[in-house]
Amino acid sequence: MGADVIDALRAMAPDVSISGIGGEQMRARGVSSDVDMSGLAVIGLIEGLRAYGRVKKAVEDAADVIAKADPDSVVLIDSWGFMWRLARALKLRGVRAKRIKLIGPQVWATRPGRARVLAQWVDHLLCIHPFEQPFYKEWGLPTTVIGNPALHRLSKGDAQAFRARHGVPDHADIVGLLPGSRRAELRSVAPTLFAAVKQVTAGAANRQVVCMVAPSVAAEVESLAREHPGKLILVRDEAEKADAFASMKVAIACSGTVTTELAAQGAAVVTGYKLGWITWALLRGILFKSRFTSLINVAVDREVIPEFIQTRFQDKLIGDAAALRLDDPSVLEAQREGQREAIRIMAGTGRPAADISAETILSLSK
Question: Across 112-116, 254-258, 335-339, which has the greatest mean pLDDT?
Fold first, then answer.
């Protein structure tokens, strides 16, 4: 996202001067820094505590560089623990630059207190979805909705091309299976999803299962596929993903960002997930605040995509929901229309998120 915003800034203001800290794509655009950010991408409480010293030093080093450069604005991206501390350091030092956060934390789902933290230390937030704004408005933080960049980059898949490549006749309904991309999901979630697909396709010769295989769990998925009684088309090539998604009438998917991609391609999604009970109790009781796990449902504030979580994560319930959509055109179309409504909301104006971001940054920098 940072690289896209750099391109948009330079297109709108050719004389703009940009420096910063970023990844390969930003460095390829000549944006780099001497600040050492290695070792800051940590996961987990203990790892975070161990990295605190490195984070603190990186914040001080970055604040020194920024204060010396005296820019008109500072755009903060990713790395929550580093970025909010940097914003705080800049404000406490009295650096005049506008502090702009590009994409906020998912306060609608977990840790709503982060909205208060951002409001205290940044001047403006460029957020992806309109349903995020009330969380920040409560604390007086101005926001601009830029839309979901993943949706803006999405290319429409070719369902007919996929059918032709894999020999699937037009009269066959394609049922998608997306069992997850993490090993833990393959253990706790995938077997139930495979069982649901087995239920949906039992005795139905006109239903073809297409299973997406993430490289990280290819061996595990292929092992489960060998136990499936019917013929599965395994899709391993990322380049085929859009066409495969577009070909699916119904998709049974592990809960995650993939549900939005499927919905955008027109597949009616049925999703589910199951966590360990201690983890679930922690998330549900303390951290997780949304009624839904799917962004599609959050966007329209109702259950468009059927969600089967924890005790409801059962192959029969999931299979019944998928079968209903395969058998009843009115139920299928109602869900597709709800998904289209959510996608329209999430896409915002339809203009590239980077362009809206660049315009806002330039306006705030005057």
Answer: 335-339
In whole angstroms, give the CA distance from residue 261 to residue 339: 11
Q: What is the mean pLDDT of residues 251-279?
A: 88
- Amino acid residing at 85: R
Residue type (1 letter), 152:
H
What's the mean pLDDT in 201-228?
Answer: 90
Place of tokens 């500072």: 74
Q: What is the pLDDT of residues 71-100, one digit of tens each?
A: 999 999 877 888 999 999 999 999 999 999
Domain annotation for the chain: domains and CATH numbers? 2-147+349-364 (3.40.50.2000), 159-347 (3.40.50.2000)
Q: Which tokens go with 310?
A: 């924890």
Largest CA distance in the chain: 71
Q: For residues 290 and 173, what is the distance between their CA atoms, to the nearest angstrom?
A: 33
- pLDDT, one tens digit per residue, over 23-49 is 778 888 888 766 655 554 443 444 444
Q: What is the mean pLDDT of the chain?
A: 88
